[in-house]
Each structure stands twice: as structure tokens, then as C-alpha cells.
Amino acid sequence: MMTDAPPGPSKTALVTGAAGFIGANVSAALLDRGYSVIGVDNLNDYYDVALKQYRLDGLTGRPGFSFNTLDLANQPAVDEVFEAHPIDLVVHLAAQAGVRYSLQNPDAYIRSNVLGFQSIVENCRYHQPEHLVFASSSSVYGNNNAEWFSETDNTDTPVSLYAATKKSNELVGHSYAKLYGIAMTGLRFFTVYGPAGRPDMAYFDFTRAILENEPIRVFNRGQLMRDFTYIDDILAGVIAACEAPPKDQDVPFRILNLGNNEPVALGYFIETLEQLLGKEAIKEYVDMQPGDVYKTAANIDAARHLLHYHPTTRIEEGLGKFVDWYRAYYE
After folding, report:
1. Is the whole model's pTM more than 0.90, yes or no?
2. What sections of 181-314 are H helices per DSSP?
3. 285 in catalytic set
4. Could you say which of 187, 259, 273, 305 is the most buried, measured as most Cβ atoms within 10 Å of its Cβ?
5. Residues 112-144, buried b or exposed e (16+ Cβ, 10 A)?
6. Are the C-beta atoms of 104 and 200 separated by less than 8 Å?
7. Which run of H or E residues covers position 23?
8. CATH of domain 12-330
9. Tens digits of residue pLDDT in 249-280
């Protein structure tokens, strides 16, 4: 839980994707810091809506929190939210996530990630909040061959539609920051995990399968690495970013990596889960899936310098906390 002092006189934050994994945690942290929080989410059924409601239940009833169910691609509905409230901070975390699903339902990604983002930046253009913070993704780096992925690396070759939509957000955001002076920070998240996370992600699905004696598919025959980043570390970075907007007078825009700076081999990740669960996984070694990348590795020097961002949670500790939550929630 964030324990730093509140920001002084109460400010209002709009958090999109407030029923999502990161969005619910960010909403709670902002409430802890004295913000009033307007949460919005379309509560779609991409994964279990009951889990989204579980996250919302931790926010509903808290002083200063209100919630609206709406689709961000419906710009008139978004306009109404901005017109009804003086909004100081926008934290845009809503998106259609997932690489595999983008192969099956590309329209959902264009609607949510492109049109939804456009609704947000257009309203920021007219209502001028102090800062817009939005979620990008490590997926924009594609199959980067560098040892560490840095914000200055070329990101012109995304390997999935999901990555392409996130890259488009960065480009559109930069143009709006330049044209209209909107202070804006894009955060490239690296494989965020933890309690009440997304069921479509490997750590969640592997846990379910191992406990139910079902096989897990090990892509690229295990030759993958991921910079797994625990939710508390991401949360500290997001809050620090929210309260330190870019100061550049010409283009008040920046992109920052938020990762753990410690890539983990898929094989070790699975071994750690097996030890925590006390069961061996039934493994099916398969080829690389379309749209996936071989490695993610966050260079976080910029976030360290600008935000004093210092992730501390190792994979063994973070997965342990997730497994404890999973057993309590499902069993």
C-alpha cells in the first residue's frame, strides 16, 4: 500500500480501466493519497467479469471513489464525463490486451486501443488536465536484439496488432503534446503480474493448469525470457510518474520503461511455480506462437533518474504472493 503523504488540496483523477488489474491498484493508491477518483471501465467479457467485479469491490464505497460503466470508443459518453467533473489527472490504462486474441478479433483492438485513446486525448485537448499518463507496452520493441530495451531504441517493427496499437498511442500522444501543450507520459509496462492479475497471462494460466493436472504449453520450447514486474513495483512507478509531469515547454511528452530490470528464463519461471505449488507441471513443448517475442529486458535508467523508481520484488517472492492469493480466491 502507498503510504506517502496526500497531494495537499484534493485533486480529481480519472482512471480508465479501473476494474482492470493495474487500474484497480492505481485507483486504490490514488485514493490513499487523497485524490478523488472517477473510475471508468466497459467491463467486457474478454476474461472473467467476476474477477473485475472482485477488484471493483475493493474500491466501491471508499470515500472519493465513483464508477462509470462506459466504452471509451463512444466519444460522446467520454465527453460527458469530462464535462461533468474538473479533472486534474488522467491515468489511461484501459485497453484491449493480449497478443493471441489480436489475431482472432482485430476490430476489438482498433476500437478500444485506437478509438478509445483518441477519445481521451481529444478531451484532454479541450479540458487541459495537469497531466495525462497512459499505458504503453514492452511489446512495441518487437524482437529487439539489444541486451536491454531502451526508450531510444527503434520501435518501428511491431510483431502483433496489439503492439502496433500501443505504438500508435505513443505517436498520437506525442503529436497532441506538441500541438496543444498537454503534459503527457507514456509508460511501457513489462509483463506485470501479481494477485488478482489477468487470467489470460501465462503465470495465471499455468497455475490453474498445474493445480488441475492439465498440460501447459511451453512456447518456443522454453527458449523465452521475460522481465516479470510485480504489481507493487509497477504501482510505485505509476504514482511517481503521475506526480512528476514532464516540464519540456516545447513538447511536454516522454516515454518511460517500467520493468524489473531482471529478465527471467521461462524454464526457471515454471520451476519456481512448481515449487510454490508443490506439483510438477505437465509440459507440452511447442513452437513459437505468432505475434510473440523472444525476450523482454527493461533498461530503467530513465525511470530511476526521473521517478526514483527502484523495483525490489524478485520473481520468487512475487509468484509466492500470487499463489497465496490464488489458493485463497479459488480454493
Report:
1. yes
2. 202-211, 231-242, 266-277, 301-307
3. no
4. 259
5. bbbebbbbbbbbbeebebebbbbbbbbbbbbeb
6. no
7. helix 21-32
8. 3.40.50.720
9. 889 999 999 999 999 999 999 999 999 999 99
